[in-house]
Protein: ABC transporter substrate-binding protein
Organism: Paenibacillus vini
Amino acid sequence: MRKFSALLMCLMLFGSLLAACGGGGGNKNTESQTNNGGAAPSNSNGGNAAQTEEPADDITQRKVTLKIHYPLPDETTLRAQEDDKIARFQAKYPNVTIVKDDWQYSVNEIGVKMASNEAPTFYNTWATEAQLLVERGWVADITELWNGWEYKDDINPVLQNQFIVDGKVYGITQNGYVTSTVVNKKLLEAKNLEIPALDWTWDDMYNVAKGAADPKKGISGIAPMGKGNEAGWNWTNFLFEAGGDIETNTDGKVTAVFNSEAGVKALDFYKKLRWEANAIPQDWALGWGDAISSFQQGRTAMVIAGAFDVVQAALNEGGMKPEDVIVYPMPAAEKGGKHYGILGGNYLVINPNATKDEQEMAFRYITFDYFTDDALKSVEDTIQARKAEGKYYIPTPLEYFSEDSEYATKIQSIYDKYDNVFKYDPNLFGLLEGKPEAQFGTQDFYATMSNVVQESFSKKGTDSKKQLDVAAQYVQENFFDKIQAQ
């Protein structure tokens, strides 16, 4: 989900060197002659080279201006890190002028940005947006640049494939996640509950949630998110596990299909957790941060989110120990089923209105710190800093690089040197099944389903099929039909 992907991004393993994926920020130029609006001057084509004796085919000898994706004003650490990257990049490419831009991608704004030629040279977006952006012509085809990049075969294919459409490359993966369930082992042991196997099911989750719940002490067995779009996002994992989908896309017509038998099964399971097991918090209207906080404070036995965020909060903010936290895949609906969790991530895409020189330099900037010794050093420096603070370093389960790449081996060798690096159960990775979010109207769907989840938690005896039919009709008429009309 977008909101969580962004938060995850800012805490990622390579946040210190890949901070360009964190958000947009200020409009100050790094040079003194920035114009008042912070917009990039149109001086980045190859015209200047023709007036000199410099080689016309050497991009490093031509003036190029990049309007880059920059961290938000309150992200002071990320801004400092990005400024360091800018300095290093300009030391190698002194012909490049950098303009910082604070725009955050919004599906409601991107069209206007493109039409008015105000979009950055490259911008951050999410896995959900590939099809929309490609169909609207709001991203550049970077296949040629990609094919000429020496590290293209070392990129994580699961993540990168989300922005490969009809064999063409339109974006570069920054990071990703597969939604997981994180379990507080101590709360299970306190109730003498059996620790379930990683290859678990909905029945296992139900039994753990029911057994671990202690309402009198304010402890829930599971804390599903119950407000904001995150409520719909959490529930969608169960829709996928039950074999359902959000939508279909046939010849450009997007149709809501989540009011299916699988949807009913998933919503009924939520109601069982609420009304039969009495396993969710009494105050169930939890947003993303509320649910994570509940886990780190020991007030719930389970929470559903990207594993990195939960473990980071539990160990480094909640004072929990690594042996008290277990990362599970999402449970299968039944034994032998798929452990589907929503696959999300952050991508940097290049403005199709940018000149050829701007696009190439944007690609070089985006990938500037990928697979470098500087990035390795940053990882080790961060681990050492965490150790000095008495804290843990939490790797993300899903990296931008392929797990069988040489770079992955180098990273692992660094992890193996330190006892404050959190270690996931190696059996976890064979069970994680990432399923991409829908490509159209995802946030609108999540918002609509959040209302359904809230109704299900607040009113006993609601009819799941009727609820989903009403929701599907609303999403169809107000969002999906309009996609085709555009």
The domain at 2-177+345-377 is CATH 3.40.190.10 (D-Maltodextrin-Binding Protein; domain 2). DSSP finds 17 helices and 13 strands in the chain. The first helix runs from residue 2 to 10.
